[in-house]
Design brief:
With 147 residues, the chain is an alpha+beta fold. Helix content is 37%, strand content 20%. The protein folds into two domains: 41 residues, Arc Repressor Mutant, subunit A (Orthogonal Bundle), CATH 1.10.10; 79 residues, Lrp/AsnC effector binding domain/regulation of amino acid metabolism (RAM) domain (Alpha-Beta Plaits), CATH 3.30.70.920. The protein is built from five helices and four strands; from the N terminus they run αααβαββαβ. It is elongated, with a radius of gyration of 20 Å.
Length: 147
Amino acid sequence: MTVDDIDHELLRLLAADGRRTFSEMAGEVGLSVAAVKRRVDRLRERGIITGFAVKIDHAKLGWNVEAFTELRYAGATPVSQIIGSASAVPEVEAVYTIAGDPDALIHLRVRDIGHLQQVIDRLRRTGSVVGTKTLMVMGSWTRDEPR
């Protein structure tokens, strides 16, 4: 099955509001409710739609600082060790292993600068980390719609 323009439109609608009903989407794409449901089910079965998530305003929960930390590891540290040690830290939102220097980019969310320092120190103690560089997020924009 190919992904056609209607599938792309359904993906865009769901990315904007994952709680949108099949009925609402049917009206926007010009299909029956049953046809929209079949298409969404197919997109899920094929793994194109991997789940539905809630967007959270972390600052309102007291997690006011967002940062990215570059990690450099010694020698031939296996990727599984990089991911395992970083993902064990609760403040880590995501781990990206990357080619070149640095070895990994870690997305962090913390309460304040003191908390950030504690987390960076914890990451440095996880094993073969030989260097870090932290970039604090001042603002952000995210593309929520599929391409």
